[in-house]
Structures are given as C-alpha cells and as structure tokens.
C-alpha cells in the first residue's frame, strides 16, 4: 500500500497564485503593442536607480515650504523602500527572474535583465514609496505621481524583467515604506519642536 502526500491548503493556494502570475506575464508578452514598446522600454530604463523620482524631488526642493518638505519625505521613503526590497525581500524570497526568451518577449521591449532576484520589484517599491510620501505632504502631486509609479511598475512586466506579482508586492512595500518614512519624519519634527520650545522656556 503506497501512501499519498496531501498538499497543504497554503501550498495549493500559493501554487495557484504562481500559475496565475505566470499566465498574466505570458499574456502581456504575447500581446502585440508596437506603439507602446519603445516608450515603456525608455520609461523602465529611465527609472533605474530612481532617477525619475530624484529629478522630481530636486525640482520640488527648489520651492520652500511644503514642496521642499514633500521632496525630503519622498527621498526618505525611497531609502526605506530600496533597503527593504533589496536587502530583505530579494534575499529572503530569491525568486528567479522570468524566462523572457521562453515567453517570447519581443526584442524591441528589452532592457538589461538584472542579476538580482525578481521578488519584489525594487523599481515599483521605490516609485510607489516616493509618490505616496510626496502625495501625503503635497496632495496636488499625488495623482500624477501615482500614475507615473503605476506606469513604471507595468513597464517592468512589459519589458519582461518582472512577473506581475513582483510588481504588486513592490507596490505594497512602497506604501508601507512611505508610511514608515512619514511616521519617522513626524516623530522627528515633534521631538525637534519640543526641544525648541524647551529652549525658549529656559531662555
């Protein structure tokens, strides 16, 4: 009598999620989009090392007051997201990058395939973290920056270097990183204010 191994519910759900993730990746790869390919390839490449976000932050920092505070919050959020994605997420999960050749992603979409693990998407985490933090401090910038962050995330799937699940996880991580950066900033501002008030009272 041979025994049978029963798959746990968690593993079964995880297997199904991975199957859906791969199917969506394959569907994007198989969908012709020549009018979008070059633009999304450039967007994905330009977003390397958060260059787009840092450029926006530099522009905001030129204006004193709320725009400058928003720029600082955004940059701090990028730092948190980048560390969480690259030093924790990628090292813990170690998901392999998609097989772009097997999926037949057209060459016109290609950007260099990173050597790092696939999960989560660091580009998405940083872009969403920046957009979220800046949007909280400077609400008029929220919608355009979130749209840009979503475009960056999708471009990573379109160019074949990430699965959709990597991008979704990166977005969640980005929101959490922005929350951490904003909370830390608020705590620092409160502590600084208390110190100043104490100095004035003693003086």
For this entry, give a set of tags.
203 residues, globular, single chain, mainly alpha, 7 helices
Can you walk through the features of this model?
By secondary structure, the protein is mainly alpha-helical. The protein is built from 7 helices and no strands. The chain has helices at 9-30, 34-46, 51-61, 66-93, 122-137, 142-158, 164-202. Helix 3 runs antiparallel to helix 4 and helix 4 (66-93) packs across helix 7 (164-202). The N and C termini lie far apart (87 Å). The model has no long low-confidence stretch (mean pLDDT 93).
Short description:
The chain is mainly α and 203 residues long. It has seven helices and no strands.
Strand content: under 5%
Could you give the count of β-strands? 0
What is the mean predicted local confidence, pLDDT? 93
SS summary, helix count: 7
**Shape field:** globular
Q: How far is the N terminus from the C terminus?
A: 87 Å
Structural class: mainly alpha
The radius of gyration computed from the alpha-carbon positions, rounded to a whole number of angstroms, is 21 Å
């Amino acid at each position: 009598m041979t025994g049978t191994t029963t798959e746990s519910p968690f593993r079964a759900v995880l297997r199904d999620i991975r199957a859906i993730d791969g199917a969506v990746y394959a569907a994007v790869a198989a969908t012709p989009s020549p009018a979008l390919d070059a633009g999304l390839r450039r967007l994905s490449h330009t977003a390397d090392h958060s260059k787009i976000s840092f450029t926006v932050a530099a522009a905001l920092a030129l204006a004193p007051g709320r725009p400058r505070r928003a720029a600082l919050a955004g940059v701090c959020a990028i730092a948190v997201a980048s560390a969480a994605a690259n030093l924790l997420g990628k090292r813990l999960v170690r998901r392999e990058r998609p097989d772009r050749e097997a999926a037949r992603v057209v060459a016109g979409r290609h950007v260099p395939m990173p050597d790092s693990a696939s999960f989560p998407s660091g580009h998405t985490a940083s872009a969403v973290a920046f957009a979220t933090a800046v949007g909280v401090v400077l609400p008029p910038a929220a919608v355009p920056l979130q749209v840009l962050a979503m475009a960056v995330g999708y471009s990573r799937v379109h160019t074949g270097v990430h699965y959709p699940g990597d991008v979704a996880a990166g977005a969640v991580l980005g929101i959490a990183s922005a929350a951490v950066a904003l909370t830390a900033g608020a705590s620092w501002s409160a502590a600084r204010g208390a110190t100043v008030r104490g100095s004035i009272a003693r003086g």
